[in-house]
Specification:
Blueprint (H helix, E strand, L loop, with lengths): L18 H10 L6 H11 L4 E5 L5 H12 L9 E4 L3 H14 L8 E4 L5 H9 L4 E4 L1 H10 L9 E4 L2 H6 L3 H8 L7 E6 L4 H10 L4 E5 L7 E8 L6 H11 L5 E5 L2 H13 L4 E4 L5 H12 L5 E5 L13 E4 L6 H8 L8 E8 L4 H11 L23 E6 L9 H9 L9 E6 L4 E6 L3 H10 L9 E4 L2
Parallel strand pairs: 1-6, 1-7, 2-4, 2-5, 3-4, 5-6, 8-13, 9-11, 9-12, 10-11, 12-13
Antiparallel strand pairs: 14-16, 14-17, 15-16
Length: 468
């Protein structure tokens, strides 16, 4: 009597991986694939270009790591795979995971090339050769420009946390690196979110990519709308404070119908200890740009704006929209609240209205084809509650593109030799003659010291904390 055993479609043994990898996976206790591994690995092993959208902790490193190691020819001592990561910490983490997955393969060499560490020893390591390079965009670009890193044999390119790399300002460096790799390579792109910039970069560097989405929950944009009726306009500011204190979130946009209201609301909240910025038509272009930049990099938790001023406002993770007044037009209302609830999260939209605005609520009911019933305001002590504060601070550097300053230079200056952690660095924006970098508030003083003492492009640039 013969028996047959069936292999689960989620088992690593179902993939046809090289035996060395399968044995090692078993010894590591890796039996079943995570959703992102199950959806991406079969396609990657066929040599297809793949875009994987999934949160940190989804198992994406093991997914592209196995595809990369399965494709590798160890006897061909050339750089065959390149993995680009946004920070040194992530690059180290990825290299560590790859070494763990490659334990069963003899004589494999994985090299990390990151900023914040001396350049010279890296040249020496490259001269000795490697199979796999894991690095950060700034340092990799430096090596390819100087001719110390040749990518002519790369047949697999991985962009890990691509959204974060673009957020940190590495688009130009990525373009420079990617165009030095062969056109017939396989490209894998992993990202927690999928903004327009990712779409355009994937279209320019990938061939018929397979798109795989794995959400931590239902990956749908959902917006929870709540309306609050107030007795009169005098109560409006008090109601706003109550809502901000009751719903403690990282980023809130408050829409006002007039510039006068924007200034009044922002001044009142600032006086009351909130982390707030104002955006309206009277601002100079430079002040407008700085305001948007600081809100986008989380150096302020609240932005008060008019509809006109907020045009082009592109914030991926906006938690809450508050309509200080109902918009004059129902379409504008829908556009306002549509700025929250992106990237699979549930967005919140609150709207305040008085008897005078009841007709606007009626128009909205017709437009939305829904009945709007007001909710009671939260009852809590305004004085007893902590004001939501921004977690980041913005540093302005008096040097930019014209001084040849790149995001990688800034990241290297901040994280090198007892510097701050790469995880403490947020968005980096490099303009013509200025650059801005967000750092966590706890790292601000050390970051300013590193920039004051350190050098970028062989010189020191003035740096200051950008405040109101």
């Amino acid at each position: 009597m013969s028996t047959t055993t069936t292999t689960s479609p989620l088992a690593f043994t179902s993939l046809g991986l090289k035996q060395d990898l399968v044995s090692n996976l078993s010894s590591l206790g890796y039996e079943q694939m995570t959703p992102i591994q199950a959806k991406t690995l079969p396609e990657m092993l066929k040599g297809k270009d793949v875009i994987g959208e999934g949160q940190t902790g989804s198992g994406k490193t093991a997914a592209f790591g196995l595809a990369l190691l399965n494709k590798l020819e160890v006897k061909r001592f050339r750089i065959q795979s390149l993995v680009i990561c946004p920070t040194r910490e992530l690059a180290d983490q990825v290299a560590k995971e790859l070494r763990k997955l490659a334990r069963g393969i003899h004589n494999i060499k994985i090299l990390t090339l990151c900023g914040g560490t001396p350049f010279g020893p890296q040249i020496g390591s490259l001269e000795h050769g490697a199979h796999i390079i894991v690095g950060t965009p700034g340092r990799l670009e430096e090596h390819v420009i100087k001719g110390t890193l040749s990518l002519e044999n790369v047949d697999l390119l991985v962009l890990d946390e691509a959204d974060r790399m673009l957020e940190m300002g590495f688009q130009a460096a990525l373009d420079n690196i990617v165009r030095r790799t062969p056109l017939d390579r396989q490209t894998l792109l992993f990202s927690a979110t999928f903004p327009e910039q990712i779409k355009s970069i994937s279209e320019s560097i990938m061939t018929d990519p397979i798109m795989v989405k794995v959400a931590s929950s239902e990956n749908k944009s959902t917006i929870s709308q709540t309306f609050f009726k107030i007795g009169n306009d005098e109560e409006r500011l008090d109601a706003l404070r109550l809502l901000l204190l009751d719903t403690q979130v990282e980023s809130t946009v408050i829409f006002c119908n007039t510039k006068k209201d924007v200034k009044q609301v922002a001044d009142s909240l600032h006086f009351d200890g909130f982390s707030v910025l104002a955006l309206h038509g009277d601002l100079e272009q430079r002040d407008r740009d700085q305001t948007l930049l600081r809100f986008a990099n989380k150096s302020a938790s609240i932005l008060v704006a008019t509809d006109v001023a907020a045009r082009g406002l592109d914030i991926d993770s906006l938690d809450l929209v508050i309509n200080f007044h109902i918009a004059r037009d129902s379409e504008v209302h829908v556009h306002r609240i549509g700025r929250t609830g992106r990237a699979g999260s549930t967005g919140l939209a609150y709207s305040l209205y008085s008897d005078k605005e009841s007709y606007k609520v009626g128009l909205l009911e017709d437009y939305l084809e829904a009945v709007i019933a007001p909710e009671p305001l939260p009852s809590l002590s305004v004085l007893a509650h902590q004001r939501p504060q921004a977690k980041m601070a913005t540093i302005q550097i008096d040097g930019g593109k014209k001084q040849k300053v790149r995001p990688g230079d800034i990241l290297g200056a901040l994280t090198g030799d007892n510097g701050i952690q790469g995880s403490q660095v947020g968005k980096i924006s490099v303009l013509d003659n200025k650059a801005y970098v967000a750092v966590t508030k706890s790292a601000l003083n050390l970051a300013l010291k590193k920039l004051a003492k350190g050098k970028m492009k062989g010189r020191t640039f003035n740096a200051r904390h950008l405040t109101n």
